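Structure ticket #2291
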Amino acid sequence: MEKATDEAHELIESLKLTGIDGIYTTNLPEELVEDTNKTVILIQDVNLNLDDFGNDTFHTLKRQIEIQIFYKIDLDVEPSDIQLALLSVFVSNHWLVPQTVTSSLDPGTKQLTQTFYFTQYKQL
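Resolution: structure written out below.
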């Protein structure tokens, strides 16, 4: 079975979003950690729970991921366009949005970030 982060990566890539310089799973490359001149997406696993127990086994995996977008300082895209595209593609592919999308401004770099959480029930 494909990992949740890899599935999410494929969904985001399929959007061919303008203004995204890279999509990464698990960790950002070291050279991008402090780079405020690129807009990058980081996808991480949040948790994996077992569900739908019967006959001494589970029949469903509840998978949750976190998607963070680190926008470059000089934005050339509208963040809400990316936000709506992500929400649309995940919801249409049977992912749930358990929490609202949050935005914040890094006090040190003044870099805008957005965080999304998506949950998927995967029947086995």
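Closing remark: The chain has a mean pLDDT of 94.
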